[in-house]
Amino acid sequence: MLNIAFIAHDRKKDEMVNFVIAYEHVFVPHKLYSTGTTGTRIMEQTSLSIQRFMSGPLGGDQQIGALVAQNEMDLIIFLRDPLMAQPHEPDIIALLRLCDVQGIPVATNIATAEVLVKAVERGDFGWRELVHKYKPGAAE
């Protein structure tokens, strides 16, 4: 089971919902997280259960970032709007930096999201299970 987070800027929320609907069967067995409104919209249109954090500008990006910093997140799908300035841009950059530091795959557009979800579907994320198994403090 993977820990997967969904984040979408306002003008990308419809695209995220449609994407998750298309791949709902892939997401069912995993633990899902999301920022506030994105998670609500996904749950309204699917049968998925999602642990929601605050809205991104109110700290949701940082809450997901805390899980990344602890190496507790396996995949983030973050549909960013590159044509709209975001008031919480420093939080976004910090989250992406943490993903790079921890080696967490992150998709910032629908094309990359599809490639990563196809990898999840094929079982190509086994390496993340090893990360969890051998994490300091993990049960032997």
UniProtKB/TrEMBL annotation:
Keyword list, A-Z: Lyase
InterPro entries noted in UniProt: Methylgl_synth (IPR004363), Methylglyoxal_synth_AS (IPR018148), MGS-like_dom (IPR011607), MGS-like_dom_sf (IPR036914)
SUPFAM superfamilies membership: Methylglyoxal synthase-like
UniProt keyword annotation of Lyase present: yes
An example Gene Ontology biological process: methylglyoxal biosynthetic process
Residue ranges annotated for the MGS-like domain, each copy included: 1-140
GO cellular component: cytosol
EC number: 4.2.3.3
Similarity section: Belongs to the methylglyoxal synthase family.
Database matches in HAMAP family: Methylglyoxal_synth
Protein name: Methylglyoxal synthase
Taxonomic lineage from the root: Bacteria, Bacillati, Bacillota, Bacilli, Bacillales
